[in-house]
Amino acid sequence: MRVWPLALACLAFAVPALADGIHGRLELQDVGAFDSAQSLSAMLGARHRNDALGDLRLTWQPRWNDWSFDVAYEASAVYGDAPQLANASAALALLPQAPPATWWRLSDTFVNDRHLVAMHKLDRLSVTYTGEHLVLRLGRQALTWGSGLVFRPMDLFDPFAPNATDTEYKPGTDMLYGQWLFDDGSDLQLVMVPRPARRGEALTANASSYALHFHTTLGTYQTTWLLARDHGDWVAGIGVNGALGGATWNLETIPTFVRDGKTCASALANISDATTLFGRDLTLFAEYYRNGFGLSARRYALADLPAPLLGRLVRGQVFDTGRDYLAVGATLQQTPLLAISPTVISNLNDGSVYGIAQATYSLRENLNLILGSQFAIGPNGTEFGGIPLAANLPVYAGEPTLFYVQLRQYF
Q: Structure pTM?
């Protein structure tokens, strides 16, 4: 389905009906990336690169009594070295093609050349009924589960990567969502996400997802219970959170019963606290993550990754190839207008480290300037230092050193 006619129809209906109810965000960004001499990008002639990005998002959310409508249109473009590198990497077919993340294709790439890619899409398109106890929502929407701060093993639908530089809007997914609100504050959620195995084919049960998510209080603890059938595998989950002094802690365990009979158990534990440092507000956190699909070995090649891990990597459900991780971070409110957020992620199996630093400064109301950097520390052959494409092949796939500046205008 081409997105132009549907997008124009939604906007044509929205603007006359409720023009002052349309809001949005304009983001402009410049990114510099620097890779090692033995990296895959260096082999493809793009070791050092620079890109300019733009993203415009328009949202409209009218309400009529118990009914509401949500539509979000997004147009984005990238100009620089990334389009050429992406096309060259895709031509190598190092990873299998990802299946459709959602049912309808409500996106369209209208420019795709050597240095410029521009596309637009409908990222939200849903209608919601909200009653006293019942909530029903049908269409493209976003849903987040779990208590992860950096890693999100319980979030089955388009979770953010640990190094995502923009986490304000989660990608939308076509789904049927239902929620029953109990009088004691508990709630039960039902989700159905239909998908085809390949774009243009019929919907299949093994490509789709179905999930039940129950949240309730047991004693002094908040608990979460998950049962899902996701891409043909059964997924269970239990989460518990509570207080420890002034801090908040979360525990999650998520076993997945893969179709080939293997059980992969992921787990998460984190603690966060708010305090002051020299009179300034400071939040601190630490998080341990066990990737049940990951490898505990110190050295391995991209070509040797097992199928369950590889499938989740290409679907964007898992972002790490190792087994055990520790992330620590903080947010310091240096001034009322300036927040500084450093994070360090360590692969406990091979000793490599990934660092993230970001500062957000409010230039004026509804206008923010964001400066950030990301960098990997580790030798070739480690996850963050660079995984070899194949055994005895001195070409490595890894994350580059990044420097970026973003300007976000809200309206």
A: 0.90
